[in-house]
Design a protein that fits this description.
One of its GO terms (molecular function) is microtubule minus-end binding. It comes from Rotaria sordida. Belongs to the TUBGCP family. It is found in: Cytoplasm, Cytoskeleton. The protein is mainly α and about 800 residues long. Among the domains are: about 130 residues, no CATH class; about 200 residues, no CATH class. Helix content is about 70%, strand content about 0%. The strands form 3 sheets. A two-stranded antiparallel sheet has the order 1-2. The protein has a two-stranded antiparallel ribbon with strand order 3-4. Strands 5-6 form a two-stranded antiparallel ribbon. The longest helix has about 45 residues. It is elongated and about 155 Å long.
């Protein structure tokens, strides 16, 4: 008995598996497990189980099988052979649920259909479809089936509406015979029959009119205000005519001209949906020709899902009007993020087909650097009028509103940078090497379903990494980018100390002249001499050729110190990194550093002059107090300049340079290199109060005032030394006359007159100027420290403490105010 049962199971499973032996064993095991499992009868009657089976068919979209099952079950009810009908249905349901679950998980990885129409084996708008079959054609000329519908109609009512043609004809014959018998027996029944026929004729007329109205055609003979039609029928008519209004709305949007590839794909999908709707109407029209097959109530049941589908399509089409490219895709993606499975089934094919043009543009851009965008839909735009020098900055721009919402900003920037890198290599670097990258495009579905698949992300990352890696190698190996960064640090940022010091010594006499008397060729020869003598001679020939001098615009009362600056020339791809704007920034930084170096050079020169002339000062006791003040001021100014210079060279330049090197080593693409470079320059300009901010302008103005006072102090010292030298020269004859001795008690009248008329007024003027410079310098430094104390940058606030760590200026100011 067991053997015969196993044979029956195998025969059943072989039919179930469509005669595929490779999956027979697995199916037999599943069926055997279900037969021998103790699951009991959990359903009280057929209706609950049938409702469960109906929902199962709906869940997996098996609409045709659902209605076929309804027809078979209707026939099965008339047969008395099967005694355990409920248990048999429960077993088949358990078997179908197992198989459908496996089929569902297998279908997740399948690609999205290429068009929305391909998902309709039978139009999802209708409950009916016409299938030409040889056997049915001979008997009736056509057959009808029912399609998927979502309504609250009970399963019993659905089964009543979906009997096959044979049962329908038999029931109608029985109805006519019953009416004839009743007419012979009772006149009242005849009257009821006549009224029923009238109602059927009226309903047939309404149905024929509705078929036109549902296609957007005006139906004057059908009005919802007709008093001869009952209120329930008028309500149904209004609902059916809504289909026509929605259809006409979608049709007008389809007929609107569009200049967009994505828009054309969207219109094509809408047209496909309307063709399915026409197919539904034609099926209903064919069924309407059969008496009793179509009624308003049946049509209401059949049109529940189509009406919802039309509403969804109309809402989507209305919101997408006037949009194109990424904006249209963003709207579709927003509508697809919905819990309604019907709306998702509409939107996913739409998204799939509309994403194809953008996907092709992305692949063409990141693989070949070409933008094929005739209607300005792509989120990367190009300007063909931009020159090669501005290719990276201005030729290719990112259109943020055109980025689809399912593409992140990070992905969009990587796509943008990858295409720019390819064009930069070809146009600016003159490199046309074909990169060995995987050019297999990602599926369109992977763009808007990135939670399920990383195919699109992997494609972007792989091509981005390969392209940017090659560009970085070209910049480092062929164009020596890092060497030029280091050269700028050594020369424009005064990092090469021996070269800068020797250059200032050579140029001092030239730079002390008026600015209009300084000539480029004289300074150029001095710079060449400094290169030959210092360690700069060991630089590469390319760096030495790029190092140059520049004379800025000459204004009145300026010296050569104010118009002379070092320059570094760039060409080729380096012009993209070191742009003209960045060159001007470096010039501003160099001028500031050059001015600070000049102050350091001046204070050191003053100290050397004072030390050198100290013995001469000792010969004139009248100026001892003045010399003491000079030494104090010299030390005070030297200390201030050294503090500022230390802050600039170490806390600003060295720290910024270290951060820049780290960022350059970590940078993967040219955009990151440019951002790191710009951030470093901006940080230096801010900390050197050269960024143009109001607070920085006040600090720069105050520091310039302090530097002017230091230069005035240097000129006063020179005047004092010159005065002392003249005085000693004038005293030589008198010292020789008195055997080299000089005393005030024996000085003649002429010498006294010369002292009071010449030396004393000069010393008085110098002393007065010295006092003014001393007071102005301390006040200026105090004000500068007060401004630093409240600066938002912490490094500048720390500079205030460094310059006045012992509160010398505060004590000095307090003592003066007290006195």
């Amino acid at each position: 008995m067991a053997g015969s049962q196993l044979a029956l199971i195998k025969n059943l499973c072989l039919c179930y598996c469509d005669n595929k032996p490779e999956i027979l064993d697995k199916t037999v095991n599943t069926v055997s497990h279900l037969l021998h499992s103790e699951h009991g009868n959990i359903y009280q009657d057929d209706i609950r189980l049938l409702d469960k089976i109906w929902k199962h068919f709906q869940k997996y979209g098996r609409n045709h099988e659902m209605l076929r099952f309804g027809q078979i079950y209707a026939r099965l009810n008339k047969l008395k052979v099967l005694k355990v009908r409920l248990e048999t249905l429960q077993f088949l349901y358990a078997l179908a649920d197992t198989a459908s679950t496996e089929h569902h998980y297998d279908s997740i990885s399948r690609p999205m259909p290429t068009s929305s129409a391909s998902s309709f084996d039978i139009p999802s708008f209708s409950l009916l479809s016409v299938q030409q079959g040889s056997s049915n054609t001979k008997e009736n000329g056509f057959s009808h089936n029912s399609s998927h519908i979502k309504s609250s109609t009970s399963l019993q009512k659905l089964l009543h509406y979906t009997n096959d043609d044979e049962n329908s004809l038999l029931s109608k014959t029985h109805l006519h015979s019953t009416i004839n018998n009743n007419n012979n027996n009772n006149n009242n029944n005849e009257i009821e029959h006549i009224s029923s026929l009238k109602r059927d004729n009226e309903e047939s007329r309404i149905l024929r009119e509705l078929l036109f109205g549902m296609q957007g055609i005006e139906t004057p003979r059908l009005s919802t205000n007709d008093t001869n039609i009952d209120r329930c029928t008028r309500s149904l008519i209004t609902r059916f005519l809504e289909c026509g209004w929605l259809y006409e709305k979608i049709r007008k949007i389809i007929n609107t001209p569009t200049t967009s590839l994505v828009g054309q794909a969207f219109i094509a999908n809408l047209s496909s949906e309307l063709r399915e709707y026409h197919r539904l109407i034609s099926v209903i029209e064919q069924q309407e020709n059969i008496p009793g097959m179509v009624s308003l109530k049946k049509l209401h049941v059949w049109m529940c899902t189509p009406i919802q589908r039309l509403k969804c399509l109309a809402a989507i089409a209305d919101s997408c009007q006037g949009k194109k490219g990424g904006q249209l895709l963003s709207i579709l993606y927003m509508h697809s993020q919905h819990g309604d499975s019907l709306q998702q089934s509409i939107l996913y094919p739409l998204l799939y087909n509309c994403t194809i043009p953008i996907r092709d543009m992305i692949v063409e851009w990141i693989c070949n650097g070409i933008i094929n965008d005739p209607y300005q839909e792509f989120f990367v735009s190009t300007d063909k009028m931009i020159s090669e020098e501005k290719l990276w900055y201005d030729k290719y721009t990112l259109r943020v509103p055109m980025i689809p919402s399912f593409i992140s900003m990070d992905q969009a920037k990587k796509i943008w940078i990858t295409g720019k890198s390819i064009n930069f290599l070809r146009v600016v670097c003159k490199d046309r090497t074909m990169l060995q990258i995987n050019k297999t495009p990602a599926s369109s579905q992977s763009l808007f379903q990135q939670q399920r698949s990383t195919e699109f992300q992997d494609m972007i990352i792989s091509i981005y990494n390969e392209t940017t890696r090659y560009l970085r190698s070209i910049l480092d190996d062929k164009y020596q980018m890092m060497d030029h960064f280091k050269a700028i640090k050594r020369y424009l940022l005064l990092g090469q100390g021996d070269f800068i010091k020797y250059l200032m010594d050579l140029m001092e006499n030239e730079l002390n002249k008026a600015a209009n008397q300084v000539f480029y060729h004289n300074l150029q020869s001095l710079m060449d001499a400094a290169i030959r003598v210092t360690n700069a001679q060991y630089e590469s020939e390319d760096i030495i050729k790029r190092l140059d001098l520049r004379l800025m615009y000459v204004s009145p009362s300026e010296l050569g110190w104010d118009v002379c600056c070092l320059d570094y020339k760039f060409d080729g791809p380096l012009r993209t990194i070191f742009t003209e704007e960045n060159s001007l920034r470096y010039m501003r930084i160099f001028n500031h550093l050059w001015r600070v170096k000049r102050m350091e050079y001046t204070t050191c020169g003053v100290w050397k002059q004072l030390m050198k002339s100290s013995r001469q000062f000792a010969s004139i006791p009248e100026i001892s107090d003045m010399i003491h003040v000079c030494f104090i001021m010299s030390n005070e100014m030297t200390k201030f300049v050294q503090g500022v210079n230390y802050y600039i060279m170490f806390e600003v330049l060295e720290c910024s340079w270290s951060d820049l090197l780290n960022k350059l080593m970590e940078a993967k693409d040219l955009e990151q290199i440019l951002e790191a470079h710009d951030d470093s320059l901006l940080k230096i300009l801010t900390r050197l109060h050269l960024d143009g901010h109001e607070t920085s302008q006040e600090l720069a103005k105050q520091l310039r005032c302090i530097f002017d006072l230091i230069l005035n102090f240097g000129s006063i010292i020179q005047r004092l030394i010159q005065c002392v030298e003249n005085e000693l020269q004038a005293r030589k004859p008198y010292q020789q006359q008195h055997y080299g001795t000089y005393t005030k008690t024996v000085e003649p009248d002429a010498e006294v007159r010369r002292f009071h008329t010449i030396l004393k007024p000069q010393l008085k003027t110098i002393k007065s100027d010295l006092h003014i410079v001393k007071k102005a310098f301390r006040d200026a430094v105090l004000k500068f420290l007060q401004q630093l104390k409240f600066h938002p940058d912490i490094t500048l606030r720390s500079l205030s403490f460094r310059l006045n760590f012992n509160e010398f200026y505060k004590v000095s100011s307090t003592s003066k105010s007290t006195s």
